[in-house]
Specification:
386 residues, alpha/beta, Aspartate Aminotransferase, domain 2, Aspartate Aminotransferase, domain 1, 2 domains, 9 helices, 14 strands
């Protein structure tokens, strides 16, 4: 049985959301926050505009795409898109993990659209992307946060599509190459890849999405918190520093700090490189492991951010689901008790195992260090059951 490792990760925050703060972060990063000031005032609005501008530049967003801050995190941004844009065409819904399944539920049970196709795959796999009909609107997650499975690229999305592509990209942007020309709506939240604070969402719209908003009026009422148009025209202010409701200026300052850090390490290229290094560290370890495997078996569709591990050992696979969950919870608890990996239990709906965040704010050296602790915790678990 391996002895307890002597080297600990510098930071133990491997949670998949809220995610690790950028290396070296302290509360001093928030010293210039516009606290007690109006978000509509000169200072507050300038910070919001700066946040949007820095985000656009890092991500390489086209000039004719709109970007704005919206309420309720990525969930709010996706819901705004679904409720405001869907209806005039049939819809293809793709799902291979919990959040994608949530969008399926919203469209089929809440909006109750008449012409819906669902393409659903088990955890660890993708649906057959060749079956997607782009004469219809298409809704999907770029990266499955709870399954560790992402789409391989944007090649399967045609440039001459007739419908809109609505992309939940919350655990993909700032860590993966998301081609804007393939996406008409892109959403994300601050608490994912850049380790910001919760409750704020980002909504990016292509010119085609704006055209849909201005030419189509849904049959259902749109609550104020979802409303993107007025009098049949886009509310441009949302994408020029105004917000639908009051944002936290403390969170705005924190996101600005994260964006400046991203710029300091080489922008999107540097962010992607760090995330891929985290995945590479775990891939090298898994290749030698006699007990751990990736939930995403295909390397081409394996996430570099939400990295999901399963326990392949025969004794574990023979256990009932509830006992597997108990073992995974015990493993996670051992790591947390030692202070080497916090909040790494797999998502509740997925096959029991572990999930380690590999986004850019995690130091690849810490990911390398934690692998020895994973082996130690597993050995302790096996010994305890002997």
């Amino acid at each position: 049985m391996p002895s307890k490792p002597s080297v600990r990760p510098t930071a133990a925050n491997f949670c998949s959301g809220p995610c690790a703060k950028r290396p070296g972060w302290t509360p001093d990063a928030l010293a210039d926050a516009a606290l007690g000031r109006s978000h509509r005032g000169t200072l507050g609005k300038a910070k919001i505009v700066e946040l949007n501008d820095r985000s656009r530049k890092i991500l390489g967003m086209p000039d004719d795409y709109r970007l704005g801050i919206v309420p309720a995190s990525d969930t709010g941004a996706v819901e705004m898109a679904l409720w405001s844009l869907l209806g005039p065409r049939g819809v293809d819904l793709l799902a291979w993990e919990s959040f994608g399944l949530g969008w399926v539920t919203d469209v089929t049970r809440q909006l109750k659209l008449p012409d819906v196709r669902t393409l659903i795959a088990d955890y660890g796999k993708l649906p057959d992307l060749s079956q997607v009909d782009f004469s219809r609107d298409v809704v999907f997650t770029w990266n499955g946060t709870t399954s560790g499975v992402r789409v391989p690229n944007g090649d399967w999305i045609p440039d001459d599509r007739q419908g809109l592509t609505i992309v939940d990209a919350t655990s993909a942007v700032f860590a993966m190459d998301v081609p804007w020309e393939k996406c008409d709506v892109v959403t994300w939240s601050w608490q994912k890849v850049l380790g910001g604070e919760a409750a704020h969402g980002m909504l990016a719209l292509s010119p085609r999405a704006v055209e849909r908003l201005e030419s189509y009026q849904p049959a259902w009422p749109i609550p104020k918190i979802f409303r993107l148009t007025s009098g049949g025209k886009l509310i441009e202010g949302i994408f020029k520093g105004d917000t639908i409701n009051t944002p936290s200026m403390l969170c705005v300052e924190d996101q600005l700090d994260a964006l400046k850090w991203a710029e300091s390490i080489g922008g999107l290229t540097g962010l992607i490189k760090r995330s891929q290094a985290n995945l590479a560290a775990l891939e090298a370890w898994v290749a030698k492991s006699d007990w751990a495997a990736f939930l995403a078996g295909d390397p081409a569709t394996r996430s570099s951010t939400s990295i999901c591990l399963i326990i392949k050992a025969p004794w574990f696979q023979a256990l009932p689901r509830d006992e597997q969950t108990a073992v995974a919870k015990s493993l996670s608890g051992r790591l947390e008790k030692e202070g080497v990996a916090f909040d790494v239990m797999s998502y509740r709906d997925t096959p029991p195992g572990l999930r380690l965040w590999g986004g850019a704010t995690v130091e690849p050296s810490d990911t390398e260090k934690v692998t020895a602790w994973l082996d130690w915790a597993y050995a302790e678990e096996v010994a305890a059951r002997a």
